[in-house]
UniProtKB/TrEMBL annotation:
<protein>
    <recommendedName>
        <fullName>Suppressor of forked domain-containing protein</fullName>
    </recommendedName>
</protein>
<feature type="region of interest" description="Disordered">
    <location>
        <begin position="595"/>
        <end position="614"/>
    </location>
</feature>
<keyword id="KW-0539">Nucleus</keyword>
<dbReference type="GO" id="GO:0005634">
    <property type="term" value="C:nucleus"/>
</dbReference>
<dbReference type="Pfam" id="PF05843">
    <property type="entry name" value="Suf"/>
</dbReference>
<dbReference type="GO" id="GO:0003729">
    <property type="term" value="F:mRNA binding"/>
</dbReference>
<dbReference type="InterPro" id="IPR011990">
    <property type="entry name" value="TPR-like_helical_dom_sf"/>
</dbReference>
<feature type="compositionally biased region" description="Polar residues">
    <location>
        <begin position="759"/>
        <end position="790"/>
    </location>
</feature>
<dbReference type="GO" id="GO:0031124">
    <property type="term" value="P:mRNA 3'-end processing"/>
</dbReference>
<feature type="domain" description="Suppressor of forked">
    <location>
        <begin position="55"/>
        <end position="569"/>
    </location>
</feature>
<feature type="compositionally biased region" description="Polar residues">
    <location>
        <begin position="707"/>
        <end position="717"/>
    </location>
</feature>
<dbReference type="GO" id="GO:0031123">
    <property type="term" value="P:RNA 3'-end processing"/>
</dbReference>
<keyword id="KW-0677">Repeat</keyword>
<dbReference type="InterPro" id="IPR008847">
    <property type="entry name" value="Suf"/>
</dbReference>
<dbReference type="InterPro" id="IPR003107">
    <property type="entry name" value="HAT"/>
</dbReference>
<dbReference type="InterPro" id="IPR045243">
    <property type="entry name" value="Rna14-like"/>
</dbReference>
<feature type="region of interest" description="Disordered">
    <location>
        <begin position="701"/>
        <end position="790"/>
    </location>
</feature>
Length: 790
């Protein structure tokens, strides 16, 4: 259980060092906030700043106005701000840190610019704003550097303040895998602290031992070097005491080193140069998100076997570092808060949810998660405030927010209070028919009052009778009540007011109802009325509808049971696609004719008519097309995707390929392959699965062909004689090569021993290969003879 209340409430050690600037102008500059581009799409985020100082800055501003999270443009602005006077750069830095509040490198640039301008008060204010929400190692090093510079000006008595700042720093970012140099710097500082008494010397030794022991147990870079220095430190003080301390810490240190090696593998996959931007769907974002989640899972598994408090600090630190790059990801915030809640730190989980709402004010799912968390732990008032905040949010308030508030009030205050919420919510401009359905179903299922539920449906029908989905929901409710008479009346009322192109869903539901509750005459009557209603006076369908066969299949199917085969369904689907393409062509012809008749009016399809894009779809035709199909059939491309690159270039899968694309495909093949493929027989039908055919051949025994008069035996004998003849031929060739080599060596003078040895070695390899080939042929011949004799 985690009960560490200081995880999010750590205080800066010296208030005087990080207090708000006393200078009013500096405070105003530091507190200036940038306008949100979401508030006005035409207003620039740089409208409160002066004109750009260069063309490069102007171009970057224009890019950011067009795309708020243009990372490259922000990087350009940051570089420009570093080279500008602080008066001009302050506004840009404020925009940088407000757009990327967890980008440690921008905070570091901002602080360094103020340090360069000798504005210590502004530097203190910057660090007070960013340190506890941005666990960026380089930023914390900049903080230490600033503290040391400020305290050096005060004299030796300020060393204690610097030591506290070091403790504060290593306590927060000392677990960073790259924190080794920071620990060395801290230990070196402790060694150089002025000592004026034996008590101070003893105190310094205790601080050094504590720092070393913390460092050697942290899975970070340079952990082995830290261990060597720790051993030397203990041996310098007392060899007798060092033996016991080192023996005590050595197993823990070896465990930390093993964890470091595993931890480093995860960190090597993480890119720490990313900026916190919303999800854009790139592969790198997915890869980095996965890498961080793997690292988090690794830390949660506690491979170092830490105590609960230390484990909590380690996991919290990893989550905080992850949020530096995935600040706009609700799943990271939710996992963070729920991990804290599951480990007994409910207060810290509530803090995380609050931070998540600040980071993602438009993420409704975070509101629901936060409210659920508060309701689960018994904070009913806090949960209700969250729901009320959500429904009062002008940008994201919708019917779903009102529905969830109504359900929450029903759970906590009763059905009557929930009805009051419904009465207020139906007056909201964001209310839709979903609110009426939710309230009616809640009253029917919870309060067991069908009369009130029906009254709510009737109340909504006055306003949403033109919504087919609402009509079908009301019909389902009446079916629950077995009120078939009113179901038919509801369908008739709705169909009288709905236009034909919007009534398809209601007609389908009406037909399904008659099939379930009516008889054959009533069902056929509704089917005929549906056909007439969805067909115009000119005989053209005013809305996309199913064919007669499809209607028949729909009437007699049940769940996943179908009254026909899958081939029949595919055939009907192909016919439907061809019909839609024909309708589109007719529509296009009508548009052209209408444009010719009147230049001022353009014939356009109805606004409510939504059809899929089927321009690239065609029925599958496995038959070869022309002589060129012989090559494609042999190549395995006709009607298949065996070679998608060539098939796409030749137009395969979109219909018959033209001559030019076919020639281009054949030109890619070597002449020998082209000749071979042209001699293959065409494949009339589906291409066989090569792997399946090979597996069947391997599993079955293929009988040896036997002719009259023992033809197999004679063939085997011939094979054996041929092998012996080849062997004699190889021996004669070897003797001729040796003689030639010796004659050449005699003519050239001294023997070339190296060359002769290489030739003999290559000849031995070739002879061994020939011998294996002969043995295999001889064994196959003998087996054939044995099978024939049997």
């Amino acid at each position: 259980m985690i009960n560490d209340g200081k995880l999010f409430k750590a205080q800066i050690p010296e208030r005087s060092l990080l207090a708000a600037p006393a200078d009013g102008a500096a405070a105003a500059a530091a507190d200036s906030s940038s306008p949100s581009p979401s508030g006005s799409s035409r207003r620039s985020v740089f409208s409160h700043l002066g004109p750009p100082a260069s063309d490069k800055e102007r171009a970057a501003r224009e890019r950011i106005d067009a795309q708020k999270y243009d990372v490259e443009a922000w990087e350009i602005l940051a570089d420009e701000a570093q080279s500008r006077p602080i008066a001009h750069a302050t506004g840009i830095f404020e925009l940088l840190v407000s757009t990327f509040p967890t980008a440690g490198k921008f905070w570091k640039m901002y602080a360094e610019a103020m340090i360069k301008a000798s504005n210590d008060d502004a530097v203190r204010h910057i660090f007070s704003r960013c340190l506890l929400s941005c666990f960026h190692l380089e930023l914390w090093k900049c903080y230490i550097k600033f503290i040391r510079r400020v305290n050096e000006q005060k004299g030796p008595e300020s060393k204690e303040e610097t030591r506290k700042a070091f403790e504060f720093t290593v306590g927060h970012v000392g677990m960073d895998i790259s924190a080794g140099p920071l620990w060395f710097e801290y230990i070196t500082f402790l060694k150089t602290m002025p000592i004026s008494s034996p008590q101070e010397e003893a105190q310094r030794m205790l601080l050094l031992r504590k720092a070393y022991q913390q460092a050697v147990l942290s899975p970070i870079h340079h952990i082995e070097q830290l261990w060597k220095e720790y051993e030397s430190f203990e041996n310098t003080i007392s060899r007798a005491l060092a033996k016991g301390l080192v023996a005590d810490f050595q197993p823990k240190h070896f465990n930390a080193r093993a964890v470091y090696r595993e931890r480093k593998k995860f960190w090597d996959q993480i890119d720490q140069s990313l900026l916190p931007v919303p999800f854009a769907g790139s592969f790198k974002e997915e890869q980095q998100n996965s890498s961080w989640k793997q690292l988090l899972a690794f830390e949660k598994n506690n491979p170092q076997r830490l105590e609960p408090a230390l484990l909590a600090r380690r996991v919290v630190f990893t989550y905080e570092q992850c949020l530096m790059y995935f600040y706009h990801y609700p799943d990271i915030w939710y996992d963070y808060a729920m991990w804290l809640a599951q480990n007994g730190s409910n207060d810290n989980a509530a803090v995380v949810f609050g931070r998540a709402l600040i980071a993602l004010p438009d993420a409704t799912i975070i509101y629901y998660a936060y409210a659920e968390f508060e309701e689960a732990r018994g904070s009913i008032k806090d949960a209700k405030k969250i729901y009320e905040t959500l429904v009062s949010h002008e940008k994201i308030a919708n019917s779903l927010a009102h529905i969830q508030l109504m359900r929450f009030v029903r759970r906590t205050e009763g059905i009557e209070a929930a009805r009051k919420v419904f009465s207020e919510a139906r007056k909201s401009p964001s209310c839709t028919y979903h609110l009426y359905v939710a309230c009616a179903v809640m009253v029917f299922c919870v309060d067991k009052d069908p009369k009130v539920a029906r009254d709510i449906f009737e109340l909504g029908l006055k306003k949403y009778i033109h919504e087919p989905s609402y009509v079908t929901e009301y019909a389902d409710f009446l079916c629950r009540l077995n009120d078939d008479r009113n179901v038919r009346a509801l369908f008739e009322r709705a169909l009288n007011v709905l236009p034909a192109e919007e009534s398809v869903e209601v007609w389908n539901r009406f037909l399904a109802f008659e099939q379930m509750y009516g008889d054959i005459p009533s069902m056929l009557k509704v089917a005929q009325r549906r056909k007439e209603a969805l067909t115009g006076d000119d005989g053209v369908a005013v809305a996309s509808s199913e064919s007669s066969m499809q209607q028949l299949i729909s009437r007699y199917r049940f769940l996943d049971l179908w009254p026909c085969s899958s081939q029949d369904l595919d055939h009907l689907a192909q016919q439907q696609i061809m019909l839609q393409k024909l309708e589109e062509k007719q529509l296009a012809i009508g548009n052209v004719q209408g444009a010719k008749k009147s230049q001022n009016s353009v014939a356009t399809p109805p606004k409510n008519l939504i059809r899929p894009d089927v321009s690239q779809m065609t029925p599958y035709d496995p038959k070869p097309a022309g002589n060129d199909a012989l090559v494609l059939s042999g190549l395995g491309l006709q009607g298949s995707t065996a070679m998608p690159g060539l098939a796409s270039r030749a137009g395969l899968g979109r219909g018959p390929a033209d001559d030019s694309s076919m020639e281009e495909l054949l030109r890619l093949l070597p002449p020998a392959v082209k000749t071979f493929l042209s001699q293959l027989p065409p494949v009339d039908g589906p291409i066989p699965d090569v792997d399946l055919v090979i597996s069947i051949l391997l599993e079955n025994e293929v009988p040896n062909p036997t002719g009259p008069n023992g033809s197999t035996k004679s063939a085997a004998a011939t094979s054996g004689r041929a092998g012996r003849h080849a062997k004699r031929k190889d021996l004669e060739a070897q003797e001729e090569d040796d003689a030639a080599l010796q004659s050449q060596a005699a003519q050239s003078g001294p023997k070339d021993v190296f060359r002769m040895r290489q030739l003999q070695r290559s000849r031995a390899v070739s002879n061994a290969s020939a011998k294996r080939l002969q043995q295999s042929s001889t064994s196959s011949g003998l087996s054939a003879e044995k099978s024939v004799s049997n």
